[in-house]
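Protein modeling request. Please complete all fields; requests missing the sequence field cannot be processed.
Requester role: graduate student
Desired output: 3D structure, token encoding
Chains: 1
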Amino acid sequence: MRILHTSDWHLGRAFHRVSMLGAQTDFIGHLVTTVREREVDAVLVSGDVYDRAVPPLAAVELFDDALHRLADLGVPTVMISGNHDSARRLGVGAGLMGRAGIHLRTDPTAAGTPVILQDAFGDVAFYGLPYLEPALVKDEFGVEKGGHESVLAAAMDRVRADLAARARGTRSVVLAHAFVTGGEPSDSERDITVGGVASVPARVFDGVDYTALGHLHGCQTITGRVRYSGSPLPYSFSESEHRKTMWLVDLDAEGEVTAERIDCPVPRALARIRGPLEGLLADPALARHEDAWVEATLTDAVRPADPMARLAERFPHTLSLVFAPERAPDDPDVSYARRLADRSDQEIAEDFVAHVRGAGPDAREQGVLRDAFDAVRADDAVREVTR
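Delivered output (387 residues):
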């Protein structure tokens, strides 16, 4: 069976205030062409179809167009909801869509109920695990203290139990939306940390032939059977080195996997440039970035006059300007933002406690802070999915 694995479309998302709707439309066209020309048997979308729970109308219209075009090809599609989607909204009409070959899996209670597709060698069971927000699903899965690993492990127990009851030789594919240990994140994914832990081990998915992951925006291989497709388009400058692709996966009669990367059309290259303003304007080596979307980090000791306008003369698609004067980290003039860079909310809070009373929090107090941050994040998640 030939499978096209995609994820993280984020329909409706902009890139530094630049609309990506046109690029997203081009991607959908490329997807449909790939399905037709490469004789794909099933399309997988591993979550974050939309960028937010209540997407703009143009994004909904594009999604509707994508569904119609995929259904017209007669190629089954399996989709799950991600942490940016409203599972309830995305799942509306799932029963009717299933009759057209579009299988939406947004209900955690159906984790062990697969979509069964056939090829010349028999059945392939596709299990859709929508994003499992621990605070919302721990009771459903009977885990005492909900974390990503525990709820995913419980969902996978249901998958393995169902698979064990099927005919010998049934092959299996799992779609999941999670941060798996070993994956490389970028700046454009929403934090899903619970209890100080964001990632889950790949062994959670043992026992299935292929796991099609979503959430991280870089295409990457965790193991030969566990892969991220990544987002088809860049959504932050941290993705400037990404090659945006989909996975074309062949599953043979024995469940062995071979995979090929299919490049996606990207509207414009990304570039991160750094140095004093005059150097950036004069450096001939930067000529290759003159048509790219640019993030410029200026290292001038004194902020130059009209930096964005001057940069735009050479790099007309400059979208982000960062000031980072070359100073020692303990220099009192180092900005507050720079001192907080790459530090988690937990670390910032612990530093604040140490600053106020002269000593950092003990283990119990660290736990209290962690629980407080988890409660706020979970409350935000609940509000998002119930909008």
